[in-house]
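Dear Dr. K.,

Following up on our conversation at the group meeting, I've run the structure prediction for Phenylacetic acid degradation bifunctional protein PaaZ from Actinomadura nitritigenes. I'm pasting the input sequence below exactly as I used it, so you can double-check it against your construct before we proceed with anything downstream. Let me know if the numbering doesn't match what you have in your notebook.
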Amino acid sequence: MVVLRSYVSGSWRAPEDEGAPLHDAVTGEEVARISSAGIDMGGALEYGRTVGGPVLRELTFHQRAALLKALASHLREHREELYALSARTGATLGDSKFDIDGGIGVLFGYASKGKRELPNDTVLVEGAVEPLGGGGTFVGQHLCTPSHGVAVQINAFNFPAWGPLEKLAPAFLAGMPSLIKPASQTAFLTARLVELIVESGLLPEGSVQMVCGDPRDLLDHVTEQDIVAFTGSASTARLLRTHPAIVGNAVRFNAEADSLNCSVLGPDAAPGTAEFDLYVKQLVAEMTVKAGQKCTAIRRALVPAALIDGVTEAVRERLARVTVGNPADPDVRMGALATLDQREEVRRSLKALTDAGRIVFGDPERVEVVGADAERGAFMSPVLLRADDTGRAEPHEVEAFGPVSTLMPYTDAADAVALAARGRGSLAGSVVTADAEFARDVVLGLAPWHGRLLVLNSEDAKESTGHGAALPALVHGGPGRAGGGEEMGGIRGVVHHMRRTAVQAGPAMLTALTGRWVPGTDRTVTDEHPFRKHLEDLRVGDTAVGGPRVVTLDDIGHFAEFTGDTFYAHTDEEAARQNPLFGGRVAHGYLVVSFAAGLFVEPAPGPVLANYGLENLRFLTPVKPGDELTVTLTAKQISPREGADYGEVRWDTDVTNQDGASVAKYDVLTLVAKRPARD
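The predicted C-alpha cells came back this morning:
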C-alpha cells in the first residue's frame, strides 16, 4: 500500500509508522496511508526561512511571475493524471476541472498580474511620496518587502488542488516560501500535485514544502516573520487563532472558514423570467457541484414569500434529474462526499435543520446510485429543505457541509438583509434580479456581512462564473463566522505576504533607496538627450529641458477649431471673464500637454520605441495668451522587461510658466529599447 511522503528540508521523508488509511470515496477501497511521524516541523520551517526565502528574495517580481507561468504550464500537461486521482475523492470530471483547472488558473492569473502590475524589482513602492517638512528636504514613503519567514498553509479537504495553489501563488510572487499542510482525507491528490511541482525543477529549492498527516507541533515553531493561512471549519479557525505561538509572536493569521452563504431572489424574478430560471439553475448547481462540499455553497436560499412555492417546485424538478453515482460514468452529475465520516457529519447536521424546517426533496438515509455501492461509497442524495418559520435559529447557525440547502421566505429587501445577517458573516452571497433599485438596497445591506457578492441577471449570465467561484483578481474571504480573513485579491494578496515600512529620509536618499526619482533630488542634464540613450544607459534623474514656447491667442483658437473643443473658456472672452477660476480666455489643458510633447520630444529614430500613456495628469495653473511654457522631463523609474529587448521608463513631467509656477504635472510612459545584442 502507498504511504504518502512529506517533502521537507530538501528531501522526501516517509513516516516512521505505518500511518492511517485513506479510502476511495466511491468504492471504499484503501488508497493510501498517511502519517507525519518523525517529521521535524521546526526544522522544516527553518529550512524554508534559511534556504527558500533568501533565493526567492533575490528574484524580481517579474522573474517570480515567469516561474509561476512555467509551473502552470507544466501542471496543465499533467491534468489527466490529476483528474484520475480527483475521481477517487468522489469528484466528477466537472468537479475535478473546477478544482484542478481552477488552481492552475490562479497560477496563470498571478503570473500575469505580476508582470503587468508589479515592477521588475525586489521592492514594491506603495503610494505617493509624503512631504514631512515645509522645505521639501524631509519626505516619506511606504515600501513593501517580503516577510523573512514561511507561509504556512493549512488546507481543507474539499479543494485539494485549488486550495494549495491559491495560497502558493501570491506568497511565491511576494518572495515568500510555502509549507503546505493538506487535509488528510484528500491528501493523496495534493501529494501528487506537490510531487509534480518538485519534479519540474522550476521552483527554487526550499520555496515549497509539504507535510502529510497530523501537523503535531508545527504551529509551536512559527515566528513573527511567518504567516499562517487556514481553510476549514469556523470552530477550528477559532482554536488556531488563539494558539500561544500565534498570539505571542503576533503571527499574521488568515482564516477562510465555512459559512452559511445565501442567495436572494428578487421580487421581479417571477416564473417565466430569465432571472427565475437562473436562480433555480444556480441553486441546484451549488447543491451538487463537489457534492455541495464548497465553503461558498448556497446554504440559505432566500425567496420572496409570494414566489416560494414556485421556486420549491422548480428546484425539486431540476434536482430529480440529477444522477448520483460513480464519477467515472459520463451520465453521473453528482459524485460522492469525501469520506463516510463526512456523510455522517452531514446527516447529523440535517437532524438539527429538520427541527426548524421540512425536507421537500431527497432522503438523507438512502439514495439510488449509478455504477457503485451506495453504502460502501460516501453517497448521499441532494436534500432541499424549506423553513417557513425564519425566526428559528438552526438554519442560520447549522451548516450541513454537503448537498444541502434550505429555502426561506422573506417579505421585503430589509427582511432579506436581516435574514442574511443572521448568518454572522459569509464568504459569498448572490442577488438574482433585474431590478437595479432592489439590487442596490440588498447589496449595500449585505456588504458588511459578505466577502463577495454576485449580482446575477440576463445581462451578465453568459460570462458569470457563478455564485461560488473564487477568482484570483478578487478577494476570497469574509467577515465574522467566515473567518475574518482574505485570500487572493490580486496584488492585495501579494502585499499580505510582505511587510509595509514607512521610510523617512531626504529626497536624494529616498531616490537611492527606492530606485525612483523623488522631487527635490538633483537632476542630471547632459548634452545628449535622454531619448538618445538605450535602456541600459539611462539613469534615474536623467533630464531634458525644453522651451520656452509662447502660447498665443491664435494657438488657442486654432486648437479649438481643429479639435472641436470650443468650450467657452477657450473661445468666448466675455464669458471666460465671468468664470472665477480664469478671468479671461485660457489655453486648453490638452494644448498645454501637446506643446509640452513638442518641447521635449527627440524626433529622429532612436531607442524610444513608443509613448504608451500618461498617468496622474493634473492641470494646476491656468495658461493665458502670452504665457511662456517650459517643460522638464526627468527619468523617474526604469524597468527592464524580463525576456524582452526593451523596457519601460516613467518620466516625471513638469510644465511651468514664465514665473516658474507649475501649470501641469504628469508621468509620461515610454517603451525604450535595450542595446542591440552583438553577433
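Two things stood out to me. The radius of gyration is 30 Å. The CA atoms of residues 610 and 671 lie 5 Å apart.

Best regards,
J.T.
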